[in-house]
Amino acid sequence: MKGHLTSENLVPACTFLLGICGLLTISSGQSTADEPLRLVVRQFLFLAAGIGLLTLAAHIRFAVWRAVAPEVFFFFWITLMLLPIFGTRINGMCGWFRIGILSFQPSECGRPFFLLALVSVFCQVPAGAKRLAASAVLTALWLLPIWFQPDFGTVMIYALAFVIIYFIAGAPWKHLFLLAGTALISGVCIAAAHPYVLRRFTGFLFPDRDPAGSGWHVRQFELAVSRGHWFGSKMGSAVWSNAYLPFSYNDSAGATLLETLGVAGAAVPALLFAVLLCSLYRIAVRRELAGQNRLFIAGTAVFLGLQVLVHMGVNLALLPPTGLVLPFISYGGSSMTGYCLMLGIALAAANDGGSFSTVSSSTTTT
Q1: pLDDT digits (tens, 9 = 90+) for 204-223
Q2: Residue boundaries of the structural domains of the chain
Q3: pTM of the predicted structure, to 2 decimals
């Protein structure tokens, strides 16, 4: 690596600084709790473990990650399938295994290996109907147990990422239209099978009709954000985040951040996310990278960018409520280690140009 501000160096630096912003956010959202520092200390340990995992993963050759991906992907898929039997239900969703005082969420920790498997399909299966079928089956197999948890927010992120990465890999427009139609039908089926999903949409569109019910989340997001104004209510004074915001340290971390620091203060993590994503983009477009390496790095940026946009869209009352965390900011070890591992593998891909690539020319010449 050359210099001190290369894209590779900016990735772990931005990740660590975002984690520090997360510690401040969690501290603010827990300032009136019985043990205000309990989650902060745990999150600090998650952050330290995540940065260590990122560093370790970056020093392992990308070829090694590709080699172990099928077995690790299968392991995480099995854990997803076993959740209904051995999993723990939290807030109506059975998505975690509880081990002592820690919880393990396979859909978050297994994300890098889903992406490795998906990229492998895109690069090994010839373009056309075969590539569409193989990648769609792989994605459906992964998403089916997450669907039945049910965790529709995570399903949405995976599905959108799949479509975008497929587009980057050179998908024809007719395939994208087919996938869009499938997504629309799936959304209608979800709303029909789970009335509370439809209530979230109506609560988002018409919050005043049921302010204490389906419109509750939207109203609390609006009030918390408006209370932050330009410069925030300062640390320890985020009243709305401590009293009314649901899961202020997790699903509502964005609103907590805005109430605490205001628009001006929240610009710092926003800038860090922008630098992180731009760094991944700059790495991905290097000509010396093989198609599979390039596609994994781009896929990492897609997953990360989508989750940030959706979380903040929900917390700014621009999208219907859904239970998605803000990467590196929200409390949670599974999300922290999952994304840190993904970034570490992306750096391994950047440092190992490789020679294997059968992905379409539209990808390799991007």
Answers
A1: 887 888 777 778 888 888 88
A2: 7-364
A3: 0.90
